[in-house]
Amino acid sequence: MNESKTVGYDARTTLPPGPTGRWLPTLRLVRNPRRAFESWAKQYGDPFFINALNGPVVITGRPDLIREIFGHEPDELGLFATGTVKPILGEGSLLMMEGQTHRRERKLLTPLFHGERMKAYGQTFRQVTLQHSGKMKPGQQFVGLDLTQNISQEIIARAIFGGQDEQTVAEMKTAARQLARNSSPLIFFSKRMQFSFLGLSPWDNFRRAQKRLFAALDREIEIARQAVAERHDILALLLRARYEDGSSMDVSHLKDELSTLLFAGHETSALAMAWALYHVHRHPEVLRELRASLDKGEDSPEGFAKNDYLKAVIQESLRLNPIVTEVLRMLKAPLKLDRYEIPAGIAVAPAAALAHYSPTTFPDPQRFRPERFLERSFSPFEYLPFGGGHRRCIGAAFANYEMAVVLGTLLRRYEFELLEKRDVVSVRRNVTMGPSTGISMKLCGMRG
Ligand code: HEM
Q1: Which residues are near ligand 1 (CB < 6 Å)?
Q2: Burial degree of 8 (CB within 10 A; 0-12, 13-18, 19+)
Q3: What pTM was computed for the model?
Q4: pLDDT tens by residue, 8-20
Protein backbone atom coordinates (compact mmCIF):
# COMPACT_ATOMS: atom_id res chain seq x y z
CA MET A 1 0.00 0.00 0.00
CA ASN A 2 2.76 2.43 0.90
CA GLU A 3 4.75 1.83 -2.28
CA SER A 4 5.86 4.98 -4.04
CA LYS A 5 4.79 5.31 -7.67
CA THR A 6 7.14 5.55 -10.60
CA VAL A 7 5.94 8.08 -13.10
CA GLY A 8 5.69 6.76 -16.64
CA TYR A 9 7.69 9.18 -18.75
CA ASP A 10 10.90 9.26 -16.74
CA ALA A 11 12.03 6.23 -14.77
CA ARG A 12 13.92 8.37 -12.26
CA THR A 13 10.93 10.44 -11.25
CA THR A 14 8.85 9.03 -8.43
CA LEU A 15 5.83 10.13 -6.50
CA PRO A 16 4.98 9.40 -2.89
CA PRO A 17 2.07 7.05 -2.21
CA GLY A 18 -1.45 8.31 -1.65
CA PRO A 19 -5.12 7.56 -2.11
CA THR A 20 -6.29 6.20 -5.46
CA GLY A 21 -9.01 7.69 -7.63
CA ARG A 22 -9.79 11.35 -8.26
CA TRP A 23 -13.35 12.11 -7.17
CA LEU A 24 -13.28 10.75 -3.65
CA PRO A 25 -9.96 12.36 -2.61
CA THR A 26 -11.14 15.67 -4.15
CA LEU A 27 -14.44 15.50 -2.27
CA ARG A 28 -12.61 14.78 0.98
CA LEU A 29 -10.24 17.64 0.31
CA VAL A 30 -13.09 20.03 -0.41
CA ARG A 31 -15.16 18.97 2.60
CA ASN A 32 -12.60 18.72 5.34
CA PRO A 33 -9.00 19.22 4.24
CA ARG A 34 -7.50 18.99 7.70
CA ARG A 35 -9.09 15.65 8.49
CA ALA A 36 -8.26 14.33 5.01
CA PHE A 37 -4.61 15.43 5.26
CA GLU A 38 -4.25 13.94 8.72
CA SER A 39 -5.63 10.59 7.71
CA TRP A 40 -3.59 10.43 4.47
CA ALA A 41 -0.39 11.42 6.29
CA LYS A 42 -1.06 8.67 8.83
CA GLN A 43 -1.84 6.07 6.20
CA TYR A 44 0.76 6.91 3.54
CA GLY A 45 3.35 9.00 5.36
CA ASP A 46 4.31 12.65 4.77
CA PRO A 47 4.65 13.64 1.91
CA PHE A 48 1.71 11.97 0.15
CA PHE A 49 0.23 12.30 -3.32
CA ILE A 50 -3.33 12.95 -4.47
CA ASN A 51 -4.58 13.12 -8.03
CA ALA A 52 -7.23 15.81 -7.42
CA LEU A 53 -9.78 16.79 -10.04
CA ASN A 54 -8.01 20.08 -10.66
CA GLY A 55 -4.56 18.48 -10.85
CA PRO A 56 -2.02 16.13 -9.25
CA VAL A 57 -0.46 17.36 -5.98
CA VAL A 58 2.18 16.24 -3.50
CA ILE A 59 1.22 17.51 -0.04
CA THR A 60 3.45 17.97 2.99
CA GLY A 61 3.35 19.41 6.49
CA ARG A 62 7.03 18.70 7.22
CA PRO A 63 9.04 21.86 7.97
CA ASP A 64 12.18 20.47 6.26
CA LEU A 65 10.26 19.88 3.02
CA ILE A 66 8.31 23.15 3.28
CA ARG A 67 11.68 24.89 3.56
CA GLU A 68 12.77 23.19 0.31
CA ILE A 69 9.62 24.35 -1.48
CA PHE A 70 9.50 27.95 -0.21
CA GLY A 71 13.26 28.30 -0.77
CA HIS A 72 13.11 26.91 -4.30
CA GLU A 73 13.89 29.00 -7.40
CA PRO A 74 10.67 31.05 -7.98
CA ASP A 75 10.92 30.70 -11.75
CA GLU A 76 10.57 26.94 -11.38
CA LEU A 77 7.38 27.29 -9.33
CA GLY A 78 4.31 28.10 -11.38
CA LEU A 79 0.61 28.40 -10.76
CA PHE A 80 -1.75 25.54 -10.07
CA ALA A 81 -5.05 24.93 -11.89
CA THR A 82 -4.85 28.20 -13.81
CA GLY A 83 -7.45 26.88 -16.27
CA THR A 84 -9.97 26.76 -13.42
CA VAL A 85 -8.98 29.84 -11.45
CA LYS A 86 -8.09 32.34 -14.19
CA PRO A 87 -11.68 32.75 -15.43
CA ILE A 88 -12.61 33.62 -11.82
CA LEU A 89 -9.82 36.03 -10.90
CA GLY A 90 -8.83 37.36 -14.32
CA GLU A 91 -5.33 37.50 -15.74
CA GLY A 92 -4.69 40.92 -14.25
CA SER A 93 -4.79 39.51 -10.71
CA LEU A 94 -1.51 39.14 -8.80
CA LEU A 95 -2.71 35.68 -7.85
CA MET A 96 -2.64 34.70 -11.53
CA MET A 97 0.84 35.98 -12.38
CA GLU A 98 4.13 34.14 -12.34
CA GLY A 99 7.82 34.67 -13.07
CA GLN A 100 8.96 38.14 -14.03
CA THR A 101 5.42 39.52 -14.37
CA HIS A 102 4.63 38.43 -10.80
CA ARG A 103 7.83 40.02 -9.45
CA ARG A 104 7.10 43.28 -11.27
CA GLU A 105 3.54 43.38 -9.94
CA ARG A 106 4.56 42.64 -6.34
CA LYS A 107 7.10 45.43 -6.51
CA LEU A 108 4.33 47.82 -7.47
CA LEU A 109 1.82 46.59 -4.87
CA THR A 110 4.03 45.91 -1.83
CA PRO A 111 4.43 49.57 -0.72
CA LEU A 112 0.63 49.85 -0.43
CA PHE A 113 0.66 47.53 2.57
CA HIS A 114 3.84 48.53 4.37
CA GLY A 115 5.71 51.27 6.16
CA GLU A 116 4.15 54.68 6.70
CA ARG A 117 0.93 53.73 4.91
CA MET A 118 0.15 51.23 7.65
CA LYS A 119 0.03 53.95 10.31
CA ALA A 120 -2.69 55.74 8.37
CA TYR A 121 -4.78 52.57 8.20
CA GLY A 122 -4.70 52.18 12.01
CA GLN A 123 -7.20 55.00 12.62
CA THR A 124 -9.54 53.57 9.97
CA PHE A 125 -9.44 50.15 11.64
CA ARG A 126 -10.41 51.70 14.94
CA GLN A 127 -13.11 54.08 13.67
CA VAL A 128 -14.82 51.40 11.60
CA THR A 129 -14.83 49.01 14.59
CA LEU A 130 -16.33 51.64 16.90
CA GLN A 131 -18.92 52.60 14.32
CA HIS A 132 -20.16 49.02 13.82
CA SER A 133 -19.98 47.90 17.46
CA GLY A 134 -21.62 51.17 18.54
CA LYS A 135 -24.78 50.18 16.66
CA MET A 136 -25.28 47.12 18.87
CA LYS A 137 -27.45 47.15 21.98
CA PRO A 138 -26.70 45.41 25.29
CA GLY A 139 -28.40 42.01 25.33
CA GLN A 140 -28.30 41.79 21.53
CA GLN A 141 -27.51 38.40 20.05
CA PHE A 142 -25.41 38.39 16.90
CA VAL A 143 -23.29 36.25 14.62
CA GLY A 144 -19.61 37.02 15.24
CA LEU A 145 -18.73 36.55 11.58
CA ASP A 146 -21.41 39.06 10.49
CA LEU A 147 -19.82 41.66 12.73
CA THR A 148 -16.25 40.91 11.65
CA GLN A 149 -17.29 40.81 7.97
CA ASN A 150 -19.09 44.12 8.20
CA ILE A 151 -16.00 45.61 9.78
CA SER A 152 -13.44 44.07 7.40
CA GLN A 153 -15.49 44.84 4.29
CA GLU A 154 -15.75 48.45 5.30
CA ILE A 155 -12.06 48.61 6.19
CA ILE A 156 -10.88 47.27 2.85
CA ALA A 157 -13.38 49.41 0.91
CA ARG A 158 -12.12 52.52 2.74
CA ALA A 159 -8.47 51.56 2.28
CA ILE A 160 -8.95 51.06 -1.45
CA PHE A 161 -11.39 53.82 -2.32
CA GLY A 162 -10.78 56.37 0.44
CA GLY A 163 -13.41 57.29 2.96
CA GLN A 164 -14.71 60.54 1.42
CA ASP A 165 -17.76 59.16 -0.27
CA GLU A 166 -20.02 57.03 1.96
CA GLN A 167 -22.05 55.88 -1.02
CA THR A 168 -18.98 54.48 -2.78
CA VAL A 169 -17.90 52.66 0.37
CA ALA A 170 -21.40 51.19 0.79
CA GLU A 171 -21.62 50.19 -2.86
CA MET A 172 -18.21 48.52 -2.85
CA LYS A 173 -18.95 46.71 0.40
CA THR A 174 -22.14 45.29 -1.04
CA ALA A 175 -20.50 44.31 -4.33
CA ALA A 176 -17.60 42.61 -2.50
CA ARG A 177 -20.00 40.78 -0.17
CA GLN A 178 -22.07 39.53 -3.08
CA LEU A 179 -18.97 38.33 -4.88
CA ALA A 180 -17.84 36.42 -1.76
CA ARG A 181 -21.34 34.95 -1.29
CA ASN A 182 -21.51 33.79 -4.88
CA SER A 183 -18.05 32.22 -4.95
CA SER A 184 -19.12 28.60 -4.58
CA PRO A 185 -16.28 26.12 -3.88
CA LEU A 186 -17.56 24.11 -6.86
CA ILE A 187 -16.37 26.67 -9.39
CA PHE A 188 -12.94 26.88 -7.74
CA PHE A 189 -12.37 23.14 -7.74
CA SER A 190 -13.59 22.09 -11.15
CA LYS A 191 -13.53 23.82 -14.51
CA ARG A 192 -16.50 21.63 -15.42
CA MET A 193 -18.63 23.45 -12.88
CA GLN A 194 -18.11 26.73 -14.74
CA PHE A 195 -21.16 26.38 -16.97
CA SER A 196 -24.25 28.48 -17.56
CA PHE A 197 -27.69 27.02 -16.98
CA LEU A 198 -30.73 29.25 -17.36
CA GLY A 199 -28.97 31.87 -15.28
CA LEU A 200 -29.25 29.59 -12.24
CA SER A 201 -25.94 27.72 -12.00
CA PRO A 202 -23.24 28.63 -9.42
CA TRP A 203 -21.22 29.99 -12.35
CA ASP A 204 -24.12 32.22 -13.46
CA ASN A 205 -24.43 33.56 -9.90
CA PHE A 206 -20.72 34.27 -9.76
CA ARG A 207 -20.68 35.97 -13.17
CA ARG A 208 -23.61 38.23 -12.21
CA ALA A 209 -21.90 39.30 -8.97
CA GLN A 210 -18.64 39.89 -10.84
CA LYS A 211 -20.39 41.97 -13.50
CA ARG A 212 -21.96 44.16 -10.82
CA LEU A 213 -18.63 44.62 -9.11
CA PHE A 214 -16.85 45.46 -12.38
CA ALA A 215 -19.51 48.02 -13.31
CA ALA A 216 -19.09 49.66 -9.89
CA LEU A 217 -15.30 49.60 -10.33
CA ASP A 218 -15.57 51.23 -13.77
CA ARG A 219 -17.53 54.11 -12.25
CA GLU A 220 -15.18 54.48 -9.32
CA ILE A 221 -12.03 54.39 -11.47
CA GLU A 222 -13.45 57.24 -13.57
CA ILE A 223 -14.26 59.29 -10.44
CA ALA A 224 -10.80 58.64 -8.97
CA ARG A 225 -9.08 59.71 -12.20
CA GLN A 226 -10.67 63.17 -11.88
CA ALA A 227 -9.05 63.76 -8.49
CA VAL A 228 -6.08 61.44 -8.61
CA ALA A 229 -3.54 64.00 -7.40
CA GLU A 230 -5.47 64.79 -4.18
CA ARG A 231 -6.35 61.25 -3.20
CA HIS A 232 -4.19 58.91 -1.12
CA ASP A 233 -6.20 55.71 -1.23
CA ILE A 234 -5.00 52.48 -2.85
CA LEU A 235 -6.92 53.13 -6.07
CA ALA A 236 -5.33 56.56 -6.52
CA LEU A 237 -1.89 55.14 -5.73
CA LEU A 238 -2.41 52.44 -8.34
CA LEU A 239 -3.55 54.99 -10.91
CA ARG A 240 -0.38 56.99 -10.28
CA ALA A 241 1.94 53.98 -10.02
CA ARG A 242 4.35 53.21 -12.83
CA TYR A 243 6.26 50.02 -13.59
CA GLU A 244 10.00 50.27 -14.08
CA ASP A 245 9.51 50.77 -17.83
CA GLY A 246 7.26 53.79 -17.16
CA SER A 247 4.00 52.04 -18.14
CA SER A 248 0.89 51.94 -15.95
CA MET A 249 -1.97 49.46 -15.40
CA ASP A 250 -4.74 49.46 -17.98
CA VAL A 251 -8.34 49.49 -16.77
CA SER A 252 -9.05 45.80 -17.18
CA HIS A 253 -5.87 44.91 -15.28
CA LEU A 254 -6.73 47.44 -12.59
CA LYS A 255 -10.20 45.95 -12.13
CA ASP A 256 -8.81 42.43 -11.73
CA GLU A 257 -6.30 43.67 -9.17
CA LEU A 258 -8.86 45.73 -7.24
CA SER A 259 -11.33 42.87 -7.05
CA THR A 260 -8.56 40.52 -5.87
CA LEU A 261 -7.62 42.97 -3.11
CA LEU A 262 -11.25 43.52 -2.15
CA PHE A 263 -11.90 39.82 -1.96
CA ALA A 264 -8.60 38.56 -0.49
CA GLY A 265 -8.52 41.56 1.82
CA HIS A 266 -11.74 41.03 3.72
CA GLU A 267 -12.92 37.44 3.71
CA THR A 268 -9.72 36.08 5.27
CA SER A 269 -9.40 38.63 8.08
CA ALA A 270 -13.11 38.41 8.92
CA LEU A 271 -12.89 34.64 9.31
CA ALA A 272 -9.72 34.87 11.38
CA MET A 273 -11.28 37.44 13.73
CA ALA A 274 -14.45 35.38 14.17
CA TRP A 275 -12.29 32.39 15.16
CA ALA A 276 -10.31 34.50 17.61
CA LEU A 277 -13.55 35.70 19.28
CA TYR A 278 -14.65 32.08 19.56
CA HIS A 279 -11.41 30.81 21.08
CA VAL A 280 -10.94 33.56 23.66
CA HIS A 281 -14.52 33.18 24.89
CA ARG A 282 -14.09 29.45 25.24
CA HIS A 283 -11.04 29.97 27.41
CA PRO A 284 -11.89 32.28 30.31
CA GLU A 285 -8.29 32.21 31.56
CA VAL A 286 -7.08 33.49 28.17
CA LEU A 287 -9.77 36.18 28.08
CA ARG A 288 -8.78 37.31 31.60
CA GLU A 289 -5.12 37.50 30.69
CA LEU A 290 -5.91 39.30 27.43
CA ARG A 291 -8.14 41.86 29.14
CA ALA A 292 -5.50 42.51 31.80
CA SER A 293 -2.90 43.16 29.12
CA LEU A 294 -5.27 45.37 27.09
CA ASP A 295 -6.14 47.41 30.18
CA LYS A 296 -2.45 47.90 30.96
CA GLY A 297 -1.57 49.01 27.43
CA GLU A 298 -2.49 52.09 25.44
CA ASP A 299 -6.04 52.30 24.04
CA SER A 300 -4.82 53.16 20.54
CA PRO A 301 -4.04 51.34 17.27
CA GLU A 302 -0.30 51.41 18.09
CA GLY A 303 -1.02 50.19 21.62
CA PHE A 304 -2.94 47.18 20.30
CA ALA A 305 -0.35 46.44 17.63
CA LYS A 306 2.37 46.34 20.33
CA ASN A 307 0.41 44.03 22.64
CA ASP A 308 2.30 40.73 22.62
CA TYR A 309 -0.43 38.70 24.30
CA LEU A 310 -3.03 39.90 21.79
CA LYS A 311 -0.61 39.04 18.98
CA ALA A 312 -0.15 35.56 20.47
CA VAL A 313 -3.95 35.07 20.68
CA ILE A 314 -4.28 35.92 16.98
CA GLN A 315 -1.36 33.69 16.03
CA GLU A 316 -2.70 30.76 18.04
CA SER A 317 -6.12 31.19 16.53
CA LEU A 318 -4.66 31.14 12.99
CA ARG A 319 -2.60 28.11 13.95
CA LEU A 320 -5.62 26.07 15.04
CA ASN A 321 -7.83 27.34 12.23
CA PRO A 322 -5.76 28.30 9.22
CA ILE A 323 -8.03 30.13 6.77
CA VAL A 324 -6.12 28.72 3.80
CA THR A 325 -5.20 25.11 4.52
CA GLU A 326 -2.50 24.64 1.88
CA VAL A 327 -0.73 26.68 -0.78
CA LEU A 328 0.10 25.26 -4.18
CA ARG A 329 3.11 25.55 -6.48
CA MET A 330 3.21 23.88 -9.88
CA LEU A 331 6.65 22.42 -10.64
CA LYS A 332 8.17 23.61 -13.89
CA ALA A 333 11.22 21.39 -13.38
CA PRO A 334 11.68 18.21 -11.30
CA LEU A 335 12.19 18.73 -7.56
CA LYS A 336 13.77 16.36 -5.09
CA LEU A 337 11.58 16.12 -2.03
CA ASP A 338 12.56 13.62 0.64
CA ARG A 339 13.41 10.43 -1.32
CA TYR A 340 11.18 11.32 -4.23
CA GLU A 341 12.04 13.03 -7.47
CA ILE A 342 8.80 14.91 -8.25
CA PRO A 343 8.44 15.60 -11.96
CA ALA A 344 7.50 18.87 -13.62
CA GLY A 345 3.75 19.19 -14.14
CA ILE A 346 2.93 18.06 -10.59
CA ALA A 347 2.16 20.59 -7.87
CA VAL A 348 3.72 20.63 -4.42
CA ALA A 349 1.71 21.97 -1.50
CA PRO A 350 2.96 23.09 1.91
CA ALA A 351 -0.04 22.49 4.17
CA ALA A 352 -0.59 24.73 7.19
CA ALA A 353 -3.39 22.37 8.21
CA LEU A 354 -0.76 19.66 8.77
CA ALA A 355 2.26 21.69 9.89
CA HIS A 356 0.24 23.58 12.53
CA TYR A 357 -0.83 20.31 14.14
CA SER A 358 2.59 18.72 14.40
CA PRO A 359 3.01 17.60 18.04
CA THR A 360 6.77 18.01 17.68
CA THR A 361 6.50 21.70 16.83
CA PHE A 362 3.34 22.44 18.81
CA PRO A 363 3.05 20.11 21.82
CA ASP A 364 -0.58 19.26 22.64
CA PRO A 365 -1.55 20.69 19.24
CA GLN A 366 -5.34 20.52 19.71
CA ARG A 367 -5.16 22.88 22.66
CA PHE A 368 -5.67 26.64 22.31
CA ARG A 369 -2.66 28.00 24.20
CA PRO A 370 -1.45 31.45 23.03
CA GLU A 371 1.48 31.27 25.47
CA ARG A 372 3.30 28.94 23.06
CA PHE A 373 3.92 31.97 20.83
CA LEU A 374 5.44 33.87 23.76
CA GLU A 375 7.66 30.98 24.83
CA ARG A 376 9.40 30.49 21.50
CA SER A 377 9.32 31.68 17.94
CA PHE A 378 8.42 29.43 15.05
CA SER A 379 10.10 29.33 11.68
CA PRO A 380 8.16 30.26 8.51
CA PHE A 381 8.26 26.56 7.64
CA GLU A 382 6.63 25.49 10.90
CA TYR A 383 3.96 28.19 11.03
CA LEU A 384 2.53 29.42 7.72
CA PRO A 385 -0.95 30.97 7.97
CA PHE A 386 0.04 33.46 5.25
CA GLY A 387 1.78 30.93 2.97
CA GLY A 388 5.44 31.62 2.21
CA GLY A 389 8.34 32.15 -0.13
CA HIS A 390 7.93 34.48 -3.10
CA ARG A 391 4.12 34.38 -2.97
CA ARG A 392 3.66 34.96 0.78
CA CYS A 393 0.48 36.97 1.43
CA ILE A 394 1.14 40.56 0.43
CA GLY A 395 -1.47 41.78 2.92
CA ALA A 396 -0.07 39.91 5.96
CA ALA A 397 1.18 43.03 7.79
CA PHE A 398 -2.07 44.85 7.00
CA ALA A 399 -4.12 41.87 8.23
CA ASN A 400 -2.13 41.45 11.44
CA TYR A 401 -2.49 45.14 12.24
CA GLU A 402 -6.19 45.10 11.36
CA MET A 403 -6.91 42.03 13.52
CA ALA A 404 -5.02 43.51 16.50
CA VAL A 405 -6.83 46.86 16.32
CA VAL A 406 -10.32 45.44 15.71
CA LEU A 407 -10.08 42.71 18.36
CA GLY A 408 -8.27 44.98 20.83
CA THR A 409 -10.92 47.69 20.41
CA LEU A 410 -13.82 45.25 20.83
CA LEU A 411 -12.44 43.28 23.75
CA ARG A 412 -11.21 46.27 25.68
CA ARG A 413 -14.62 47.97 25.50
CA TYR A 414 -17.23 45.26 25.57
CA GLU A 415 -18.26 42.20 27.51
CA PHE A 416 -19.46 39.42 25.20
CA GLU A 417 -20.89 35.97 25.84
CA LEU A 418 -20.36 32.99 23.57
CA LEU A 419 -23.68 31.28 22.84
CA GLU A 420 -22.23 28.20 21.15
CA LYS A 421 -23.08 25.07 23.12
CA ARG A 422 -21.07 22.68 20.94
CA ASP A 423 -17.63 22.72 19.36
CA VAL A 424 -17.62 24.79 16.19
CA VAL A 425 -15.92 23.10 13.25
CA SER A 426 -14.11 24.51 10.26
CA VAL A 427 -16.05 24.29 6.99
CA ARG A 428 -15.18 25.22 3.44
CA ARG A 429 -16.42 28.51 2.03
CA ASN A 430 -14.47 28.71 -1.26
CA VAL A 431 -10.68 28.58 -1.17
CA THR A 432 -11.04 29.63 2.45
CA MET A 433 -12.22 27.72 5.51
CA GLY A 434 -14.34 29.26 8.24
CA PRO A 435 -16.40 28.51 11.37
CA SER A 436 -19.46 26.34 10.62
CA THR A 437 -21.91 28.44 12.62
CA GLY A 438 -20.41 31.87 12.07
CA ILE A 439 -20.06 32.01 15.93
CA SER A 440 -23.18 32.87 17.91
CA MET A 441 -22.57 35.57 20.49
CA LYS A 442 -24.29 38.08 22.75
CA LEU A 443 -23.24 41.59 23.64
CA CYS A 444 -23.60 41.81 27.41
CA GLY A 445 -22.64 45.47 27.68
CA MET A 446 -19.79 47.92 28.06
CA ARG A 447 -17.01 46.92 30.45
CA GLY A 448 -17.10 48.76 33.76
C1 HEM B 1 -5.90 36.85 8.18
C2 HEM B 1 -5.90 37.36 6.97
C3 HEM B 1 -5.23 36.74 5.76
C4 HEM B 1 -4.81 35.45 5.56
C5 HEM B 1 -4.89 34.27 6.52
C6 HEM B 1 -4.24 35.41 4.22
C7 HEM B 1 -3.67 34.27 3.65
C8 HEM B 1 -3.07 34.25 2.41
C9 HEM B 1 -2.44 33.10 1.84
C10 HEM B 1 -2.28 31.73 2.52
C11 HEM B 1 -1.97 33.44 0.61
C12 HEM B 1 -1.23 32.54 -0.38
C13 HEM B 1 0.23 32.66 -0.09
C14 HEM B 1 1.09 31.65 -0.82
O15 HEM B 1 0.72 31.19 -1.91
O16 HEM B 1 2.18 31.34 -0.30
C17 HEM B 1 -2.31 34.84 0.40
C18 HEM B 1 -2.00 35.56 -0.74
C19 HEM B 1 -2.43 36.83 -0.97
N20 HEM B 1 -3.10 37.65 -0.09
FE21 HEM B 1 -3.64 37.20 1.80
N22 HEM B 1 -4.35 36.64 3.65
C23 HEM B 1 -4.93 37.50 4.56
C24 HEM B 1 -5.19 38.84 4.37
C25 HEM B 1 -4.97 39.56 3.22
C26 HEM B 1 -5.23 40.95 3.04
C27 HEM B 1 -5.77 41.88 4.13
C28 HEM B 1 -4.89 41.26 1.74
C29 HEM B 1 -4.96 42.57 1.01
C30 HEM B 1 -5.25 43.70 1.55
C31 HEM B 1 -4.42 40.03 1.12
C32 HEM B 1 -4.00 39.94 -0.19
C33 HEM B 1 -3.37 38.84 -0.72
C34 HEM B 1 -2.85 38.79 -2.08
C35 HEM B 1 -2.95 39.90 -3.13
C36 HEM B 1 -2.24 37.53 -2.23
C37 HEM B 1 -1.51 36.99 -3.46
C38 HEM B 1 0.00 37.08 -3.27
C39 HEM B 1 0.80 36.55 -4.44
O40 HEM B 1 0.32 35.64 -5.14
O41 HEM B 1 1.94 37.03 -4.65
N42 HEM B 1 -4.46 39.02 2.05
N43 HEM B 1 -2.98 35.31 1.50
Answers
A1: 94-95, 106, 260-261, 264-265, 268-269, 272, 323-324, 327, 385-388, 391-395, 398-399
A2: exposed
A3: 0.93
A4: 445 556 899 999 9
